[in-house]
Amino acid sequence: MYAKLPFKYLTNSAILFFSFAWLLCPGLQDNVSASSYNELVKLVGENDSVLVADMQGNIIFSKNKEKRLAPASILKIFTSLAAIHYLGRDFRFSTEFYKDKNLSLKIKGYGDPLLLSENLAEISRILAKKIEKSNTIAFNNIIIDDSYFKYPVIIPGVSKSSEPYDAANSALCVNFNTVNFKKNINGEFISAEPETPLIPFAAAKIKSSGIDNGRITFSHDQNDSGLYAGHLLKYFLELEQIKLYGKVKHGFIDTNKDKILLKYTSNFSLEEIIAKLLEFSNNFISNQLLIATGAKLYGHPGTLEKGVLAVSSYARDILKLKNFTIVEGSGISRKNSISAIFMYKTLCEFKPFRNLMRHEEKEYYKTGTLCGINTRAGYIENSKGDLYCFVVMINTKGKSTKNIMKKIYKIMEK
Fold first, then answer.
1. What is the CB neighbour count within 10 angstroms for residue 317?
2. pTM: predicted TM-score of the whole model, two decimal places
3. 295-308: pLDDT as tens digits
4. I want to staple 91 with a disulfide (CB 3.0 to 4.6 A). Which of 225, 270, 291, 344 is the partner?
């Protein structure tokens, strides 16, 4: 009868009784001392969950392991795992460049989340050499084709702020769809990153933002992200003495008529992208991977819905999980709802890739934070060399994972 009662309904004597029973009976988390167990139980509220397990699959501590809670950014571990499964650990994004009969330069993006200023400079040098051989020294328009993702991509939980974590997702974007800027001693706006020039297109957006320094993001308004990529490429092409007389505008590639000049493959493998995603907890990269995964599985154009369907299918069909809600891939939405068991099974599969996570001393981990929500998940190696995985999900306002992690460390050293 008592075994079915939650701890809040048990007397101190009953808790003590079950603590001794747990110590004496085989299979009842026998690696944890009664005192450590009770201390940890008290720290885990009704809106929290904790799970600790060894890598043989033995759960040595859990409370509320089936309770669905908001995961915040630890969801990125799961999104990364699903992307590895469907795209492949060595997958690399590409961006294509074409020339049409009207001498327009066309760019088609496929969702590369790490297309940076340095890459556009490299691409411009490569294109200059190819163009020189064909005796073409000028183009008319630069045409942006970002149709590989359906426009616009609206992510639940993302607002129209200037914060980098609110950057819009699209099939063609540069520098995470952001510009980092500051004022010089003369009060003029300049780039805060030496490799990225402050081009007029970006300067106009900065002036209209009313912000003096920091970052602005390019939104879906007038599809700024693709246009910024085109204007920035124009700048680097002109450095290579390639003239452009027309405008930067949106359009489409016609593979039957347009001539391909270059298929640029990213310098970063999927594993390298995920390492950066997890290190910086980048929401933009997470959802680029989510949408690209959906496009790979269900065909383009990539959509949020296809991405969610892909990762949800992975959870159900591969991890054999039920009872979860995923609405996007970064954890920024409070509508995401998973359990500690969900994360535990994710960690079991992610073990070969744990080196992609942040690493401090003997812990590989990912944290998550939203207002009133603190989460942490990963792996810890104890002094004996035994590896454990842990999940801590705190949805109680005002609490953190800090004290719970101290108790978890104590448990694993027993």
1. 9
2. 0.89
3. 999 999 999 999 99
4. 270
